[in-house]
Design a protein that fits this description.
Elements lengths: L8 E6 L4 E6 L10 H16 L5 E6 L4 E3 L35 E5 L2 E3 L2 H5 L4 E4 L4 E3 L11 H6 L5 H10 L3 E4 H7 L4 E2 L5 H13 L3 H33 L3 H9 L6 E2 L1
Parallel strand pairs: 2-3, 3-5, 4-6, 5-7, 6-8, 7-10, 9-11
Antiparallel strand pairs: 1-2, 8-9
Protein name: Enoyl-CoA hydratase/isomerase family protein
GO molecular function: isomerase activity
Pfam families: ECH_1 (PF00378)
Length: 262
Amino acid sequence: MGAGAAMSLRVSADHDTGVAVVTLDRPHRLNAIDLELRDQLVAAWRALRFDDSVRAVVLTGSGERAFCTGIDRDTEVPQPNSPYMADDPLLRVGPKSNDLWKPVIAAVRGMACGGAFYLLGESEFVVADPDATFFDPHTTYGMVSAYESVLMAQRMPYGEVARMMLMGTAERMSARRAYEVGLVSELTAPGEALARATEAAAVIAAQPAAGVQGTVRALWAAREAALAAGFAQAPHLISLGNLPDDRQAELFSARRPGFRTR
């Protein structure tokens, strides 16, 4: 991160409770992740590894409209001219990808879509406001939902993941439906997701840290084999299935505003 770069991430720690709150802070862009925010997330996860006073983390987004809407469409990501060396800019954006084995609870308000699933997929559980919605726009814009699909396949029944990923922007999963299928562990009263997630994090942070972190590592170990197998296929599927960038841009510009929420 270069000198003078604007901070798009806020990290606050309560050393009495042992809870840190990590907030995506680009509400004007619906908390979409550009390369600077990606780098700030990586730095934050790595810094939290060394802060023994922090024993649990809450991840949220600023504003009321969105938790995170994935990669910022204005972000240019240079790619090697080879299908064997594709560079996914969000692949290392989550806590587990940065070797953080402290529990992370996501507090979701508003939209969570596309690349947001890299973050939700590496959180221990999700607490959501009733206005939260979940969807994946990839197919609508001529792209393969690969890493996102693999991560969400570990969190929801196959049919629910398939429907979300294949329907694109035409349909959004409501917070209620997400709770019913297990993506969301708690559905709160309006405006209370962050508070409830922070309360849960404080309870976890009060437990002996070594036991908690070992449990997080054991839980993730149960998922690693499936994730590794799916991720191994992802670059090739993306290379084969994605439309050229200019065609994706055309589809994005022509997108229809209507959608159904179920």
